[in-house]
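Dear colleagues,

As part of the handover before I leave the project, I'm documenting each prediction I ran so the next person doesn't have to rerun anything. This entry is a single chain, and its sequence is reproduced below.
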Amino acid sequence: MIVSPQGDRIFSVSDDKQLRIWDAKTCKETKAIPAHDGAVVGFSLSSDLAKAVTIGADKTAKLWNLTDGKLIATIALAGSPQSVTFSPNGLRIAIAFAHADRGNRICTYDTVSGKNYKPLPKGRPSFRSLYFLSDNRTLVATGDDKSLNVHDAAAAKRDASPSRRCDGIIYHSNGTQAFTAGKDKLVRYLDVATEKT
């Protein structure tokens, strides 16, 4: 589930194959988009809220126009996706694949052509959460091993693998601060430049 920055809309996906948009005030559904032939396992919104990308158990990624609910593009995937994110400029998406399917890889795709860029290096964990920083090339991924991994998506290389243990991460819009959360029931504040909590 994602709440719009203005707090007026809620976006959700589920096993019912739909991308749903809700009015946050009335809690009434305003739009249901039949998104996939199987469960919708993840989604992300463009920063201007004009587009959404969904990933499904049917091994596809789909790009949607949220104004009219129309499909813009379908990208066939080589494995089972489990996480997706938009770059802030909306020109690239990153998708993390399930462990057995893509060898723990993260692939990035052009949102206009659907071109698959060079996959990012294999990692030890299966990645669960992805987030692009405001430079549109630094990609942060959290893994099943509770690690925080930093990638240069433009150069297709891993920059660092800090030893921060976390299950999920969210960044401030300024790109310099983050909050991480883990099964240890702690939320940590992280300064991105110094990697200190």
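The first helix runs from residue 99 to 102. The longest strand covers residues 28-34.

All the best with the project,
I.
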